[in-house]
Design goal:
Blueprint lengths: L16 E2 L5 E5 L2 E5 L5 E3 L4 E4 L6 H7 L8 H16 L3 E4 L9 H4 L2 H10 L4 E5 L14 E3 L1 E4 L2 E4 L10 E3 L4 E6 L4 E9 L4 E2 L10 E2 L14 E5 L4 E5 L3 E2 L2
Parallel strand pairs: 5-6, 6-7, 7-8, 10-11, 11-14, 12-15
Antiparallel strand pairs: 1-2, 2-3, 3-4, 4-5, 9-10, 12-13, 12-18, 13-14, 13-16, 16-17
Length: about 250
């Protein structure tokens, strides 16, 4: 049973809208963000595509320890990322930490997967934000590295800082929503935001999810947050009181 975080103290009326492609437009800090159905964040003002927690080569990491998983997670994750790049033609692609599952992942990349990463950097800026799983950053792949960066009045970093952090965009916690329904419930990866800060879902094919009612999220939001649950072709706006623990 998940240890539930206490509810934030205030309710809030969100100014969000569902776009034609099923993504969710919402303010984050002083800018407007689009929560994409893929789990990516789009900042149109800077043409920046932001994804968190790809955990590339997680399958091969588990295989090295004797837990055999289908070795296709990197290919599938990069295929989905390439589709977002093709759809949006970003000027910036920001990998928001834990892009690799461990420090040896880059050496285990298949040649065609490494080429897909190089392709992402052609004609645009690729930024690797450092995470706890990939503290060394890339060694032989293109792009810039950063501990955090400022963009559109936002601070983008891998791990959310404790307490209230207006304008912060982060990953790390792999948020997931269990949504109450008439017959049981459904669990989906999700964005979580109170319009002041946002935490992105894990983008990686093999990355798991932590229920947003878990105590790890306690104290991060000034008001009852909104979950943007990833559905089939749509991000569903789900209010806090419609969310259940695991």
């Amino acid at each position: 049973m998940t240890a539930l975080a206490p509810e934030p103290p205030k309710a809030f009326r969100y100014d969000y809208a569902v776009s034609d492609c099923g993504s969710l437009r919402t303010p984050v800090g002083a800018t407007e963000a689009m929560l994409r159905c893929s789990g990516a964040l789009w900042l149109a003002a800077e043409r920046a595509l932001v994804v968190a927690d790809l955990h590339l080569e997680k399958g091969s990491s588990y295989a090295a320890r004797g837990q055999m998983l289908p070795p296709y997670d990197t290919r599938e994750t990069l295929k989905r990322l390439a589709a977002e790049v093709e759809a949006l033609s970003p000027a910036l692609v920001i990998l928001l930490g834990d892009t690799f599952h461990d420090r040896k992942s880059e050496g285990r990349l298949a040649a065609d997967d490494a080429e897909r990463l190089r392709e992402l950097a052609r004609g645009r800026t690729l930024i690797w934000v450092i995470g706890n799983h990939d503290a060394d950053g890339p060694r032989a792949l293109p792009g810039e590295t950063a501990d955090e960066l400022q963009l559109c009045g936002l601070t983008l970093r891998h791990e959310p800082r404790a307490g209230l952090q207006p304008g912060e965009v982060s990953g790390h916690l792999h948020p997931a929503a269990r949504v109450k329904a008439t017959r049981g419930s459904v669990r989906r990866r999700c964005f979580i935001t109170d319009a002041e800060r946002a935490i992105l879902p894990a983008f990686g094919a093999y990355a798991g999810g932590l229920n947003v009612r878990d105590k790890a999220f306690a104290g991060l939001f000034a008001r009852l947050p909104l979950a943007g649950a990833l559905g089939h072709g749509r991000v569903h706006a789900v209010g806090w009181r419609s969310l259940a623990g695991d």
